[in-house]
Amino acid sequence: MSDTLVEALARRFSWPDGCGVVLAGSTAEGVAMRGSNVNVLVVDAPYGWAPPGDGTPCVVRPMSLCLNHIYSCDPVISLEVLRPLDGLAELAAGMSRVGDPGTPDLELPVLDVLEIRLLSRLRGGLVLHGDETVERWRKRMELGWLPAFHCATTYLTALHFHRKAATAQADGLPLDASVQLRLAVEHLLVSALAADDRVLHEVKNLGRHLTADLSAAVDRPRLLVEAGALLRRDMTAVPELFARIEELAAGLLDWLPGTKHGATAARYLRGQGLGGRP
């Protein structure tokens, strides 16, 4: 991420007093490609505030958590002015329950894709303005729990897809089974990346994050290499593939305690009766 971009944003936009502004998305995460949008979050802006126009064509697209101002420049700037976050803050604070291995998974908060996206960006983005405001929201939402929470819940989702694949196969739906198996592998990888502090809300950038994570590792985790390779093969639902994914899931659970956030997730998962390798 270049200092030139940060300086250009500071020159272009005037931020209101008391708000917090975060540069987020693939640019802040270091996985942007040519043509990637520049994503900016604005929190605690005054009611009705909108970024000033400067002659660049802009489309305002309402979303469930924000008003998204899209500037069709090069690169495209997606500036999201967030709506009041009190309800989400209360829900997100419940992520801390993953620290109690005895909490049933049904009692963990259910966060949708846009909510995970927002929490991840607010937690990991580069603060451009209003450090105190951003830090206040980070603490209020207890975002320190986000990686372990996402690691554990995504692992459980991977197991769910594995079971759904078995049901589809038994019901004579091989294409459905193959899709479910691919989803299971993708979610195992997302779980592993969350343990290592990369929280993905979708798999669109999975390959780039996986490549970045492996290139930064002193010892390339064999589990991630093998799971990534599995996505490049034919995902026809055969018994050997079901067994291989089971092995990967067990290996991941054994691997988690040695990662930055995985120890909490592993304790929680074992508290739900899940074991590692036999």
Description:
The model has no long low-confidence stretch (mean pLDDT 86). The protein is 50% helix and 12% strand. It has a six-stranded mixed beta sheet with strand order 3-4-5-2-1-6. The protein has eleven helices and six strands. Helix 6 packs antiparallel against helix 7, helix 6 (146-170) crosses helix 11 and helix 7 (174-195) runs antiparallel to helix 9. It is an alpha+beta fold. The relative contact order is 0.12.
Question: How would you summarize what this structure contains?
Answer:
With 278 residues, the chain is an alpha+beta fold. The chain is 50% helix and 12% strand.
Topology:
Elements: H1 3-12, E1 20-24, H2 25-29, E2 38-43, E3 58-62, E4 66-71, E5 77-82, H3 86-93, H4 113-124, E6 126-129, H5 131-140, H6 146-170, H7 174-195, H8 206-216, H9 222-230, H10 239-255, H11 262-271
Parallel strand pairs: 2-5
Antiparallel strand pairs: 1-2, 1-6, 3-4, 4-5
Helix pairs in contact: 6-7, 6-10, 6-11, 7-8, 7-9, 7-10
